[in-house]
Amino acid sequence: MARLADYFVLVAFGPHPRGSGEGQGQILQRFPEKDWEDNPFPQGIELFCQPSGWQLCPERNPPTFFVAVLTDINSERHYCACLTFWEPVEPTQEGLCTEDTAEREEEAGEGGLVGLSPAAPGPPGQLFAPKTLVLVSRLDHVEVFRNSLGLIYTIHVEGLNVGLENVVGNLLTCVIPLAGGSQLDSVEDGVRTISLGAGDRQVIQTPLTDSLPISRCSVALLFRQLGITNVLSLFCAALTEHKVLFLSRSYQRLSDACRGLLALLFPLRYSFTYVPILPAQLLEVLSTPTPFIIGVNAAFQAEAQELLDVIVADLDGGTVTVPECVHIPPLPEPLQSQTHSILSMVLDPELELADLAFPPPTTSTSSLKMQDKELRAVFLRLFAQLLQGYRWCLHMVRIHPEPVIRFHKAAFLGQRGLVEDDFLMKVLEGMAFAGFVSERGVPYRPTDLFDELVAHEVARMRADENHPQRVLRHVKELAEQLYKNENPYPAVAMHKVQRPGEASHLRRAPRPFPRLDEGTVQWIVDQATAKLQGAPPAVKAEKRTTVPSGPPMTAILERTSGLHGNSARRLEVVRNCISYVFEGKMLEAKKLLPAVLRALKGRAARRCLAQELHLHVQQNRAVLDHQQFDFVVRMMNCCLQDCTSLDEHGIAAALLPLVTAFCRKLSPGVTQFAYSCVQEHVVWSTPQFWEAMFYGDVQTHIRALYLEPAEDRDPSQVCGDSLGPRGGAGLALAHPRPLGQVGEAPAQADERSALDVASEQRRLWPTLSREKQQELVQKEESTVFSQAIHYANRMSYLLLPLDGSRSRLLRERAGLGDLESASNSLVTNSMAGSVAESYDTESGFEDAETCDVPGAVVRFINRFVDKVCTESGVTSDHLKGLHVMVPDIVQMHIETLEAVQRESKRLPPIQKPKLLRPRLLPGEQCVLDGLRVYLLPDGREGGAGGSRGGPALLPAEGAVFLTTYRVIFTGMPTDPLVGEQVVVRSFPVAALTKEERINIQTPSDQYLPDGLQLRSCTFQLLKMVFDEEVGSDSAELFRKQLHKLRYPPDIRGTFALTLGSAHTPGRPPRATKDKGPSFRTLSRNFMKNAKRTIGRQYVTRKKYNPPSWEHRGQPSPEDQEDEISVSEELEPSTLTPSLALKPSDRMTMSSLVERACCRDYQRLGLGTLSSSLSRAKSEPFRISPVNRMYAICRSYPGLLIVPQSVQDNALQRVSRCYRQNRFPVVCWRSGRSKAVLLRSGGLHGKGVVGLFKAQNAPSPGQSQADSSSLEQEKYLQAVVSSMPRYADASGRNTLSGFSSAHMGSHVPSPRARVTTLSNPMAASASRRTAPRGKWGSVRASGRSGGLSTDVGTRLAGMGPPQANGAPPDPGFLRPQRAALYIIGDKAQLKGVRPDPLQQWELVPIEVFETRQVKGSFKKLLKACVPSYPATEPGSASFLCSLEDSEWLIQIHKLLQVSVLVVELLDSGSSVLVSLEDGWDITTQVVSLVQLLSDPFYRTLEGFRLLVEKEWLSFGHRFSHRGAHTLAGQSSGFTPVFLQFLDCVHQVHLQFPMEFEFSPFYLKFLGYHHASHRFRTFLLDSDYERIELGLLYEEKGERRGQPACRSVWEYVERLSKRTPVFYNYLYAPEDTEVLRPYSNVSNLKVWDFYTEETLAEGPPYDWELAQGPPEPPEEERPDGGAPQSRRRVVWPCYDSCPRAQPDAISQLLEELQRLETELGRPPERWKDAWDRVKAAQRLEGRQDGRGTPSSLLVSSVPHHRRSLGVYLQEGPVGSTLSLSLDSDQSSGSTTSGSRQAARRSTSTLYSQFQTAESENRSYEGTLYKKGAFMKPWKARWFVLDKTKHQLRYYDHRVDTECKGFIDLAEVEAVAPGTPTLGAPKTVDEKAFFDVKTTRRVYNFCAQDVPSAQQWVDQIQSCLSDA
In CA terms, which of 195, 859, 1006, 1642 is 20 to 30 Å from 967? Predict the structure, then answer.
């Protein structure tokens, strides 16, 4: 029996002691006045009576009632029922309170009350003070309290004739039965009717089970107020220990909500702060760091909003606010969605019927009380599903004197399949669950509804999962039981309590609430107490039983373990391998081992391994030989490497007894156990793992104590060492029960678990004698003690390293690195796992010697012993004894280990594969010899087999080498099934873009922490970990050396410049005074003598000194070639006297003239170096040497093309208007439209734009800046003037004349316009000729930062682009056209105003910046070479990453702009590209434009010229963009040139027949522009190259240096040997202008980024890629029969083009081989190819003129340009022909005349040229001087009088004409003079010149007579004509 009420208190308003307006509560009376012994009076009741503060009120409010909850220091809850009513303030009290009326009025106003002035006379100024009746009880009977206090108030207000003292006395003496009514004998015992003596009657029903909470309607109300989702959030927040705050204006609502939330948490008890109603004075409690559930009046909402980590639930508004910093983990799926749907069915039953066509009649909804129980039933089911099987993970550590129980959290999570689940992890680590285990883990206790549910209903719940109606039925059944628990006897629930009348509170009370007589009340209480003392004590009748464990647990959601399913086949492989090992069949075992190691990724296979090994231990086969030992250890390591620190699946637990059992004999008396080889796993240093293991073993032994010997399975299980009973764990793994439970999977059905045994013992305990009890307690304690000693041994085995020097690995693991963090409480316990994972990043840099490993292990073991022994109730004496023993155990083990280590070192080392040395290039030197490493797989499929087929080549074991040029890995796959394949991966050191350390566990089952990941811009990735034999010092040295080589302090440190830079031995540099001309000397008298180097020259030979760079490689005199002194012949216009030049000046000028720029200018007919009047009239442009000193612009070449009319001195001023002084210069001229392409840097603010912005034209006498602008304007005018005019307005108009919107004028201005370009839809549609080639689409890509969207309308008039990207309708173009379009940055040209005097048009475009290129490239690199395997299957993740990189979008924009410029040039308008600084995007655009417009640049020679001119001479900053030196390290790698090559590759793909070079050529340049193997792409400009002496090296110097210094020289050499750079499909159209599609959908990812050949590394160093020659068949080293040449080709390993070359390459190779066999010198491949082409043309002619079988006829439609091979019906049936040349154009189409007009003479001639009918009037060998300073070359010349031609061939047998001179153009034949580079042995009279209208040809015959003969023959031919 229990008291209904402990205290009755009367609390009234009292003034505040400090005189403030607010009052405070005062306790007027309390009964009883003395505290109860068992229940002291709670403090602070006066605060809780008025939670919002004690305040006077201007009107009489109705009485209020609520229940506050106070929690005392013992966690006992006291329910304070408060009934508050208001009474008028007595005058004395009012007087006391009027001191501070103003303040009180304000405060009352703030509180929502109207403050009346108390000074006003009479009732209007009357104030009312609150008074509260409080009932304090430990029982929760809210309705009884409400009725009882209401009765006392009624008696007072209504003036009933009942003594209040009697009522209060009766209330305090009322006793009611304890909970458990159903267990009592009759209804009268369970139901108590009470009366307080005022004619009232109340029925109190006690719940049947006191463990089930009482909720009444509170849960249903909570769901109504907040909704399902919000309540679920609060539920998860409370369970995961977050702070929850309820807000409401109603106190009763607050207490109901808190009560409801707690009811939902059952069976867990909330153990943190719980205050349903928090008084205003205690609001600072909300800042507490601990979790809480608190309710606060909504008036204090503002204070609540300031809290950053509190979840606020507003009951009145129905919202839950979760702060950003708080993460509430949701319930695990599928429980979250299942719970949500069941709750909606309970709360809204009509939802299921809402869609029915014929809904049933309305169903009766449950009452609120019943709905409340249904909602609780849903959560009860949820907990039963969450915690199902929890009893199988309880460890019974002690049974007597009190049960000690521990929960095996890791095993529970592992068995449920919820290891990763955040929610359950936090719940299990929480305080509530700890209380749950200690309360419900007890095996012998009363059971309740939850125990029944979790034990017996699990199967039903699983079966009902997919049947909502069955679930609902179950919920209703549970709800019935919950309802019955609260209302056991609904029939007798009748109350009779008087209530006050309506509005009684408004009537004026006769008097204030009276003071009660203490004596009377106390007497009544005393009387009742005396009565109770006489009665026998009421014992709570508890029916205790053994708690059922229920079925074994299952996973919440059956998850398949992915690839490694637990297939029987895999388990069979594991069993077979172990059998082979123990039977000594090592070869068989070795074959199976890789498959076993793969299978061990699956959980079942790991369990199977533990079982099998355990069986062998039981058969006493634990002593192994060395090979067996290695196999067993390797398999154990493989199992353990996937174990987490908590060992959720019990693998480490199963292996722990085995690692102390398996051993090998090293020498007599020295045995090595397996534990010394499996220490490198994080699980061994996790305290929680050891605790769980310890408790599991203790449970086994405690159980064995109480089992009868006959019942015990095996006496060996009770022994203390070797396997211990835990050895059964390996066996038990096969059963579905978790590892943590030792009753696990009993073999016999009647075998009792440890919990059953404990339950039986607890039942018998009271019946045992005192001595027997003591004996059992001692036995249990000694069992725990002996296990503690056993575990101290086990821990020292696994924590002390075999090799003291390797202790760093140990220190990196959690428990030993920082022992303070080891687990000694619930909180640190949960952190240790996370510490273990992050630890290795911080530590590991201490000195191994300074770390005290034994001390650390002793401290770790001592902490463990302290914790487990304290929890297991070991006496302090025993604990002290353990502390003394631990250091001795550790010391003893260290001594044993020393002997083991000493002996193990004598073992022969494991045979590691030999290091394969890489092949090196000439001049490449090894910096660091091979460091043994493992190359790990990355995200590329190549090494892992993947979709391309082939085995997993990675991981590979080998070595990494660092040379002066490359980082090279060579090795072999670790998987022995792959075979003896050598894996090579390398990249140039200079291409390294990122180097980072990594920590990875390798597949070779060893933990090798030192890892390195190297990423290169040539799309290679080396992800490697160093072998254990490589010390950390060596690894660090490797990193430092790599960094030093990658970023040399100076450019001279790069491989290309250090290669062969040492002086030749025995030839010291000459210390002459003149060390060779300096840069200044090179250019000093340039202008004065410039003209002498061009034109016809006479010769004086002289020696000279080459420019030196710090004497490097200075050649000796005999190595130098003769220099030729030149001067110009006398021209009548200049009459310059011939002057002798200084050697340095001559060299400078001729070298400048030799540069690619000049060669190209002459080819394009772009002017001469002369400024004479005669040439000025005819040539609009001239070559200006104004920049010869690089004084105007350091990044420009020395010779520039400028308008003829502009003087050199004006250029200096013009250059100031442009960034980097890069003023506009001509770089190309269209041969057909004569339009020119110019390039420059972006404008400074004060250039043209400044002019346009200015309102008035500048006056002549202005500042320097203005005059520069004026000069600039004049300069542009001169450019415009130099262009040919087109009179016809009908054709070739490209850009519309629409003025931009911001120009303010809608009238098209005839001259100066600004056209906004974003979608450059420009086309020359109305040209006379139809559009040739292809058109690229230029629609905007839709990405930000790209070209803006008004493209089509601005540039293409109104016409939208056609669907396929072809030009729009011809009628859209406007007739007006600017002579010059300036394409500039949109940002520069904002706000530009038109000026009618200008004749150019500005086209502002938005382009990306170089930093965007850099960022995009980084992402592209990660997409193409990811460092980890893709998570998504297939190519989805690659395509997503590729799209994110936006690389293709940048390619699209470049092609788009280039096609626009091509169109403009083709239509006759000139274009100036003026973007950024003029050396990045400008270079890309102008290069692409020239490539698309001019077929010459699509040849090998032309492309070289293009790159040399636009990229090298015009100063692209290769060193800066490639971060070549230490200074550029921070700027990073920006692949502007690579992006250009990618654009060329895209065009090549679309037009494969237009390019002489192959795609491999582009990849080759892409690789070597970053490799530093050649000097070509070093430095930022010609100026810097001259300063370093790189630009004009002497040929003499090259003789002594076989290595190629120029990439072009290398290409030339290689091309002679192999056609690798040649494109067999090359068949150009002479005037073809290419217009590629540029849409992203038309672009392809360059295979340079993705392809990889592991057989030989990158194929771009040709000498290395060829591989060593195979021995001939008869010379096989094994002496066996000749082997076949056939071999398997793996796409991921071999180079497919090399293994299976294309047909033509193969035929050419075969031809060379056959010629070699016949003893002939093999013919060059190019000669053979040319002969084949000529023969193919001949065959075409012989087949008949009308339908030649040759496929290259002009009737092939234009898209054929994209194709190379056609299948065609010929006269001999179907033949596959290959297009070799385009010379067979015939006029059989409608466009025949147009074709004929475009055909060159060679094309016409080749139509009827045949080898037999060729008319050769005279032939012989002549030396011919190449164009514009090219070298002299011997050619075979044929004079053909019939065709009136002088043709020349490479060789006499050559059938392919290399070129011809049309005799019709010859003006004169005259004797000549030798020039630079002419043959030295020939007489000067053997030279003669042929002057044509276009140029002068220089010839040299072998002797004077033959020269005379040639002159006569040509003369006679001319005279015949």
Answer: 1006
